[in-house]
Design goal:
Layout: H1 2-7, E1 16-21, E2 27-34, E3 44-52, E4 67-69, E5 72-74, E6 77-79, H2 82-86, E7 90-94, H3 99-102, E8 106-109, E9 112-115, E10 118-122, E11 132-133, H4 139-147
Parallel strand pairs: 8-11
Antiparallel strand pairs: 1-2, 1-7, 2-3, 3-6, 4-5, 8-9, 9-10
Length: 149
């Protein structure tokens, strides 16, 4: 099955709802915020709508759960798309992003501001930390963020 998943590459889009299995047996219901395709194609961002005890899949929108990492508080996680592309994080539908969630597509990377794949501008030093930062979390760090929600 794993080999079959590696051969089949799944396409994902902004608004896609997917199931992310947690190490403790629960399931996080997540939504893709940025399906990055350009210079950041090795990353995507998502928010967690809810965490539940099983994989019961009901398409229902909701606010993203926040998490704290160091001194930062966020509701968007950047990760490698490997698991969503392979089907290990199973897509169950799509709900268009709300206006509030569309704003979460804005992030900073190396002193520059982006909205999804689109370059916006260079940031002034005093603006650092005001936006979500593109920092790709490995699978273990994703699990740590989820366990703190």
């Amino acid at each position: 099955m794993q080999l079959l998943n590696m051969l089949k590459r799944i396409t994902y889009h902004e608004g896609d709802i997917f199931l992310l299995p947690m190490e403790d047996g629960r399931t996080a219901i997540c939504q893709v915020v940025c399906a990055l395709r350009g210079r950041f194609k090795k990353a995507f961002s998502f928010g967690v709508i809810r965490i539940q005890p099983d994989e019961t899949a009901e398409l229902r929108d909701g606010d993203f759960l926040p998490y704290t990492f160091g001194k930062r508080r966020s509701s968007v996680i950047f990760a490698s798309p490997a698991y969503i592309r392979s089907g290990d994080w199973r897509i169950i539908g799509n709900i268009p992003l709300t206006q509030e969630k569309e704003q979460l597509k804005v992030f900073e990377c190396a002193g520059h501001l982006y909205c999804g794949d689109e370059y916006v501008r260079h940031l002034q030093q005093e603006e650092y930390g005001k936006f979500n930062t593109l920092g790709v979390a490995g699978f273990e760090l994703v699990q740590i963020h989820l366990s703190g929600m």
